[in-house]
Amino acid sequence: METSYKNAFRFVDVAQALLKDESEEDTKFVAALNSVIEQINDQREEYGKKVVKIQRKHAAEDKFGCILRDDRGNYRFKKDQEEAMEAKIDELFNHESGIEFDPEYVDEESLPSDLPKHARKWLVGFVIAPAEVEQTPAEKLLNSLPTTKNRQSNGE
């Protein structure tokens, strides 16, 4: 399954907070959280490398083409290049297929009874299977109508 770095990193934050609250029990839920966290954390370094590459590409250069750095070793940027860099990093962070992982879905009975709703929404797609969206009555009707391959329009 694929998701954005934003969603994946948010899942890790929520999952780690839940793991702190969970007792040391070895449950299906805890195992699933740890499995998906591990998969995502394995790709964090790759994300960091991509960010550095974007920063380097947009960094200011001197007249010899050498990258300029400040006293702390950070890249320096011209205003327009910094704005372009920030846009590229935002695009990378929010791109829907930025990170790939194998979800570890657990059944409803394996979820903690005190799982907060605000946390639950961040677990969907990672350790909680997404609910199938039910079709509206109009969509059901449209899908039930017969179709023909050769539709005629405008009286032709």
From TrEMBL:
Residues 137-156 are annotated as: Disordered. The keyword Coiled coil applies. This is Uncharacterized protein. Keywords: Coiled coil. Residues 30-57 form a coiled coil. Residues 144-156 have a biased composition (Polar residues). It comes from Dyadobacter soli.
